[in-house]
Amino acid sequence: MVVRIEEVTTAMLEATELPDGTARVAPDRPFADVVHEHLDRLYGYCVHLCGDLTDAEDLLQDTLVRAMRSFDGLRDPKAARTWLFTIATNCARDRWRARGRALDTVPLEAADPDDDFSLFTTIAIEDPFPYSDELHLDFLRLFGDEDLHTVFAAMTPVFRAPILLTTIHGFSCKEAAAVLGVPLGTLLSRLHRGRKQLERGLWVYAVRRRLVTVSDET
Description:
elongated, 10 helices, Rna Polymerase Sigma Factor, Chain: A, mainly alpha, about 65% helix
């Protein structure tokens, strides 16, 4: 899978023409240099957005094509990461819209059953590691990469995206708001609710997979 991505993106970045036959911007290849610097994280973001490797490859290709076409509009090379992630987000929205799905579907004023859930409190009450001095860290160490991917994939997309951008990819809240095209206050609200949803998701997953033993699984 990694080899295929590398082959596809290398061919695209080295091409002198876009897939539709139009000339590629910047023939001295600064676009390739900019993209290669962020390619791994951009692909990871696509994987988390799609939850499927094949769809992620398609989304990455759509992102690169759109970025190539608009590269002459990038005025500040230091803003390339935010620019690329914004394009990926918009491409994902377009793909989901075509499939009758949407990234922004949950009203912020809607009641959220996860708001009253606290992972730390639940772990402390259940005490699955009675002899541990690092209770919460021991809980998080139960999860491998595939486990975390499964939990993230089950989250509501509108709440998952802020977590991905700020926690996984290191964007500031202001940068993440710009990527998603929402006000900062909206981003902060979604980030809070996303963290709550993630906490519950981690606990439910751990119980269902019997990674922890609890007093009452009902």
